[in-house]
Structure formats: structure tokens, C-alpha cells
């Protein structure tokens, strides 16, 4: 099987659980993380599941937009085509909220980086490809300009705002890709799964990660997502549904896309 699926944040949590399922099904994988030792360990685990697949490792800190661009360049250097990009990496709380680019790390990792990576990888995707963005049941209205500065709001508030922003740009970008480009979805993998993020944020073990992993596999490859580009899938209710009503605010959506384009334009201008 020659299909290639790239997963950000795939050395633990839902990303790792998803990679394991995909490895078992025989898909070639591009796995990403911030720590090379963890990446090599993850590669070994996945090859232990299926030693017939090809696995490439990619190291990058996604709070740094230059590293995100380098990640995209590395992916393109390895693959002439990718079938699915799963923008899984995300953060809830961080030790230092200000990024190297002077932005809020939480918005960078959860909103801006997936946008930049998707844009930068369009050359190796076509209309049969898919982009899966990890959303959440936690969604809150935001001012698009919040993405341009460091927020003083609590982690939970910023997280909910960032996930709605991600869901919102998914909706608007899908219209651009409608005739030429990948299908793109926002997916809530299910609430309170047993990821490190949930343990750190809420102090609970959480549910079975495979609940989320299975829906990400379906979003990546399954027929039930065909023709659903731009839509939000809520795995808490196991159906496509409308996200927070703010996602339909066309004026805010247009401003959000303009801001995102302005933030990533300097990086896209120098991509290889």
C-alpha cells in the first residue's frame, strides 16, 4: 500500500494511537515530534506493529514558524505526494506563552501552524488528498486580532478560542479548495480522552485514546467523510454537526483568513 499519511504530534496521545492503527492497516507514515529520541522510539514501536511499511521521522518545534516551514520542506523532500495530513499537534498550557515570533504559543500551535503547514504542503496534495484538523468540543468566540498578540486570558479560555478559530478557518479554506485542492475537515475526536493534555489540564486519566484514533483514521481515509469538506465532525455525538454559531460569522471569518494569510505570507514566500 503506497498511501502516505503525515501526522503532527505523533509520539504520544491521540497522534500515537492513530499512527498505531494506521500502521496496522499498512499505511506509510510520516511522524512528527519535538524530540528525536521519542521519534526513534515511536518508529520502532510502529515497525513492531508492521515492518512492511515505510516510516519517516520529522523533528520540529511547531511553536516556531520557521521550524514549521522547515518541516514542510522536509516532508516535500521525502514525498512527491501525501494522501492525508493530520494536524494533530496542540497545546493547552505552556511554560512560556510568548513565541519566538512574538505571538502566543497557544494560538501558534493550535491555529497558525496548521494553517501554514497546510498551505506549504499544497504542492504535494491534490483533490484526492485530505487535511484533518483536530478541533474540540471546547469552542469560544474570539476576535481575530487576538492571534497577533500574547493573551493574558486563562489557558482554558485561549484553548477554546483557538479551537473555534481552527474550525472556522477549516470552513472558509474549504471553499477555496472546492474545485482544486484537498478536502479538509475539523474533527472533535471526543472529549476527555486519556491524553497528556487532558491529564495536565484536568487531572484525570481520561477515556480510551482509540476512540479518537478510530475517528481520525476514518476522517483520513473513510467514505463517510467523502463530500463533507469544510464540515465539523463531533465524535461526542458521532455525527457531522454545526460548530459554535460564531463559526458562521462571515465578517469575522474573512478577517481571520486575512490575518492568517498576513502571518504566514513571509514564510510561504521563502519556501522551497
UniProtKB/TrEMBL annotation:
Q: Which UniProt keywords apply?
A: Oxidoreductase
Q: What is this protein called?
A: Oxidoreductase
Superkingdom classification of source: Bacteria
Q: Which SUPFAM superfamilies match?
A: NAD(P)-binding Rossmann-fold domains (SSF51735)
Any one Gene Ontology MF annotation carried by this entry is: oxidoreductase activity
Q: Which family does it belong to?
A: Belongs to the short-chain dehydrogenases/reductases (SDR) family.
Gene3D superfamilies linked: NAD(P)-binding Rossmann-like Domain (3.40.50.720)
- Which PANTHER family does the protein's record reference? NAD(P)-BINDING ROSSMANN-FOLD SUPERFAMILY PROTEIN, RETINOL DEHYDROGENASE
Record keyword Transmembrane present: no
Amino acid at each position: 500500500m503506497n498511501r502516505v499519511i503525515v501526522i503532527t504530534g505523533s509520539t504520544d496521545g491521540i497522534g500515537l494511537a492513530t499512527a498505531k492503527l494506521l500502521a496496522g492497516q499498512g499505511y506509510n507514515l510520516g511522524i512528527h515530534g519535538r524530540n528525536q529520541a521519542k521519534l526513534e522510539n515511536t518508529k520502532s514501536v510502529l515497525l513492531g506493529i508492521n515492518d512492511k511499511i515505510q516510516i519517516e521521522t520529522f523533528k520540529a518545534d511547531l511553536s516556531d514558524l520557521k521550524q514549521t516551514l522547515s518541516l514542510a520542506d522536509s516532508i516535500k523532500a521525502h514525498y512527491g505526494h501525501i494522501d492525508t495530513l493530520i494536524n494533530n499537534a496542540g497545546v493547552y498550557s505552556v511554560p512560556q506563552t510568548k513565541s519566538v515570533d512574538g505571538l502566543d504559543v497557544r494560538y501558534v500551535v493550535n491555529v497558525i501552524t496548521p494553517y501554514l503547514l497546510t498551505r506549504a504542503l499544497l504542492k504535494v496534495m491534490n483533490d484526492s488528498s485530505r487535511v484533518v484538523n483536530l478541533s474540540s468540543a471546547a469552542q469560544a468566540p474570539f476576535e481575530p486580532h487576538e492571534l497577533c498578540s500574547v493573551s493574558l486570558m486563562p489557558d482554558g479560555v485561549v484553548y477554546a478560542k483557538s479551537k473555534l478559530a481552527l474550525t472556522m478557518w477549516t470552513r472558509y479554506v474549504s471553499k477555496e479548495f472546492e474545485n482544486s485542492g484537498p478536502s479538509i475537515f475539523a474533527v472533535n475526536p471526543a472529549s476527555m480522552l486519556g491524553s497528556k493534555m487532558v491529564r495536565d489540564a484536568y487531572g484525570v486519566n481520561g477515556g480510551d485514546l482509540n476512540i479518537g484514533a478510530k475517528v481520525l483514521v476514518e476522517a483520513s481515509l473513510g467514505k463517510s467523510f467523502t463530500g463533507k469538506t469544510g464540515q465539523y465532525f463531533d465524535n461526542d455525538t458521532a455525527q457531522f454537526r454545526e460548530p459554535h454559531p460564531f463559526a458562521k460569522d462571515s465578517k469575522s471569518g474573512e478577517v481571520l483568513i486575512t490575518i492568517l494569510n498576513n502571518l504566514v505570507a513571509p514564510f510561504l514566500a521563502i519556501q522551497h
